[in-house]
Amino acid sequence: MIDSAICLGAIEVTAWTLGIPSSEVYGAATSYSELRIERSDARVIRVCTGLSCIANGADDIVVALESATGSRAHAESNDAAVALETSACGHLCALAPAIHVDGRWQGRAAPESAAAIVAQAGAR
Questions:
Q1: Is the pTM of this model over 0.85?
Q2: What is the CATH number of the domain that holds 102?
Q3: Do 34 and 56 reside in the same domain of the chain?
Q4: What digits encode the pLDDT tens for the residues 75-119?
């Protein structure tokens, strides 16, 4: 699993190095769905909800993954084995719809593969 948590000390050092307030660095760091300030033990499955992905069925994938994981996207649960999230853009428009499983983007996802995606993430 990829640990993408940013420690607050790194935010302070970055702000000092750039000569800007740490609140600006914090704002930039928290605006990206791939980055976190708090560590989580959950495996992350992220579905792109950009225009191309939505047009090609990303909403159906979210519903299928919610059913397969038993949790809703962006649910605040610390004990979940998998965290289901959406992302504004995965930058794989030509391969839409795209999903992100433990640090790797995959294109041409389908709702029918939700169970396999969850198994790949080690959720069940």
A1: no
A2: 3.40.30.10
A3: no
A4: 766 566 788 889 988 899 999 999 998 778 999 999 998 888 888
